[in-house]
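Review form for a predicted model. The reviewer records the input and the model, then writes brief findings.
Reviewer: anonymous (R2)
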Amino acid sequence: MVFRLPTPFDPMSSDSSRNAQSRPWRGTFSLHGISLFPPRDASGQQLLFATSAETEGDNRVELWPKHFNIYVTRQTCRLSDIQAYIRTNPQPLCMFMPDRHGGSQNEANFRTLARTMTENQMIAIAPWNDPERLPGAGILLFPTTSSTALLVGVIFLNSPFPDFLSDPLRQNASAIPTGLPASTPGPFSSSQMFPSSTSSPSSYTSAGPPITPPSRVPGYHVNELLKAMGGIGGGSGSGTGSVSRPMSPFGFNGDRAAAARYRASQSMNWPIIEDNNAGPQANWQ
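Model under review:
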C-alpha cells in the first residue's frame, strides 16, 4: 500500500474552511400563537431544542441567532405553492429536527408541532430581527409529509418573504395590537449534521417574554405578520413588492445606519389578527 504525503499544492485549507461553513445551526425555538405542550420552565415559554441538517446553499449559519421566536400561522397558500416558488426562485434551504440531546419529551413536542402544522396546513415564520447582521426577512418553515420529525426552512438572508404568502388574506385583515418579542442575535455552531456530545440543552438561553394572543386566535395571520415586518415582496405573485414599505426591525427596507436609529427609537408593538373561526384541531392560546 502506498501513502502519499500532502504537498503544498493540496487544497487542505479550503477543505477545512468549507467544512467549517457547513456546520449546522443548533439552538432553541420559542413557539407563539399556538399552545401545544406545557411550558418548559418558569418563563412560560414553549421551548424546543432544535438543530439544522441537510443544509443547501449559503445559509450563513454563523450569523443566525441562538434563539428563534417561531410565529405559527394559519396556512395562506398551498404547500405546493411554496415548493413551486422554491423551484423557480432558488433560496438556501435547511431541515430542522429535534436536538438529540434535548430528551425524549423534546422530540415528542417537536413531532407534535410538525404533525399539527401538517394536519392544519400551517406555516411558521422565524424573523431574524437584526438587520445589522442579516437584512433579510428570516426563515419560512413548513412541514413535510415524509416525516413528523422534520421541518423545512426556506432562508431569506437578504430579501423579504415572497408576496404570494399574504395575498389570500388581504381582504380579511383586522388588527389587534400586541407585542412580538425579539429573537436573540448571536452566532452558534455545532458539529457536522448532528449536535456535539459536549453540549447540553442547559447551555441554551431564551429571549423575551412570550405573547398571549386572544383565546380564539388560531395562530397568526401571515399578512399581518408580514405587515409588522415592514411589508412583503421580492417574490413572484401580485407584484406588491414594488410598494414602498416602512422600515422595521423585522424586514428592513433601507440602509443599515437608518435601521439602527429606527430600532433604537421604536417599541416592539406589532399587530396580530383576531379570528372567530378557530378550528378544533389544536389547542390555541
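Findings: DSSP finds five helices and nine strands in the chain.
Further findings: The radius of gyration is 19 Å.
Recommendation: see findings above.
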